[in-house]
Amino acid sequence: MARELHLAGFLIASHVTHSHASWRHPGSETDYLGPDYYRRVAQTLERGKFDFLFFADALTTPVRYGNDIRVPLSSGTQFSAAIDPMLVAASLVNVTEKLGVAITKSTTYFHPYDVARVFATLDHLSRGRSGWNIVTSVSQAEAQNFGLDNHIDRDQRYERAHEFVEVALKLWGSWDRDALVQDKETGVFADPDKVHTIDHEGKYFRSRGPLTVPRSPQNRPVLIQAGASSVGKDFAARWAEAIFEIDPTPEGRRAYYDDVKSRASNFGRNPDDVKIFPSFVPFIGETESIAREKQAFHNELADPISGLITLSVHTDHDFSQYDLDAPIGEVSVPGSQGLFDLAQRLSDKDSLTLRDIGKLYAQGVLLPQFVGTPSQIADQIEEGFNGGEADGYIVSAAQAPGTFDDFVDLVVPELQRRGLFRTDYTGSTLRDHLGLGEASLTPIPRQVTIA
Question: Which domains are seen in the chain, by residue range?
């Protein structure tokens, strides 16, 4: 069977996504507080036969840059305002039939029982289309919103996350598949011998169980991750079935692809069951020059300070203290090490200043921009897909929902003509779309085995 390209759409339940310029774009809708915007995007992606719609999330208003929320709020940087994507997702499964919906939930500021219950419920309501983007959160500000003084360090929060997922798997498996009887004649609702406590007593969590939610259609949500540091990539290689990646260079994407697939093999997993999704922002035009005009217009709307505010949030490091016209120096960041390493690599490679990095960050959090006619965009996707960079791609919008409309109407048909992408759904669940088998509820051993 020929290898098949996968596609997903990226959103935040907010006025911006990766692009900070998007909310200022004349073509963007700004009613992110109401249901119609999300419904339109989801139905557009389903019309394009996308695998899933992916919602990123954070648990704080940005305050790290200069310890001040006034500029982020005034300029509308990423997460200056956002609503709860889980409730948005619950509304979308009623207006779509096939599209998967993947939601971000933190393992640091929630409990496994709560998360397991929420995703089992979403999997039932969507009839098997749920996905969980597992994050450990990145910032001190998030900790302070949950009554803590400081965010726990990277190694500890990943250790905690491993146990979190292990507990969630136990809870999702606490109802056998055939435990729910509902025999009105005999009066037997459920077979008590097929519903189990989990009696988990660990370093970070205790949970008796069972879950209140019977076994869901997929057994559990599809597990998604975005590990970029070494410890993050190990976590992703152990658990994730889809991995979201940011790297603007083909060589960087190829190196990441090879690295994570190798790590998955070391955990005893089939690397084909780990789908890697780099993200990009497309600018599509009837001609290449029109597409480049669209790109230039968008990029001029991006403010470097807005970008540095978000870089400060992602790395949990205050970049307001540095010279904007100097290169990024060697600094230690407690937040996303992978994104900082990427910013530093670009700075060194292209002799970029901190201001330049801020501008790129505001244009799309260092995502590559694919620019050209529908055929040229399809060329770039096909080259990366066949060149060891990706199993699929996550499309992020320069303007919303217009970018998604253009991609579905113009690029998807070109990908279909080339035999790269499906012309219709062949299954009903997110696992079906991703070509995955039945979801296991048995934790993968933590010990990496190097061949």
Answer: 6-302+368-434 (3.20.20.30)
Residue 144, SS3 per DSSP: helix
In the block, tokens 């009837």 appear at 286
Contacts of 144 (CB under 8 A, 6+ apart): 60
pTM of the model: 0.96
Could you read off the pLDDT of 23-81 as tens digits, one per residue? Answer: 999 999 879 999 999 999 999 999 999 999 999 999 999 999 999 999 999 999 999 99
Whether 121 contacts 213, CB under 8 Å: yes
Residue 393, SS3 per DSSP: strand
Q: Extract long-range pairs of 174-179: CB within 8 Å, 24+ residues apart.
A: 174/198, 174/209, 174/210, 174/211, 175/210, 175/211, 175/213, 175/214, 175/215, 176/215, 177/215, 179/214, 179/215
End-to-end CA distance of the chain: 28
Angle between helices 230-239 and 250-266 (to 10 degrees): 60
User: Which helix (H) or strand (E) element contains residue 130?
Assistant: strand 130-135
- Whole-angstrom Cα distance, residue 103 to residue 87? 10
- The 8-class DSSP code of residue 397 comes to -
Task: Find out whether 154 and 334 touch, Cβ atoms under 8 Å.
Answer: yes
Q: Please state the rounded mean pLDDT for residues 436-441.
A: 97
In sequence order, what are the beta bridge partners of 10?
54
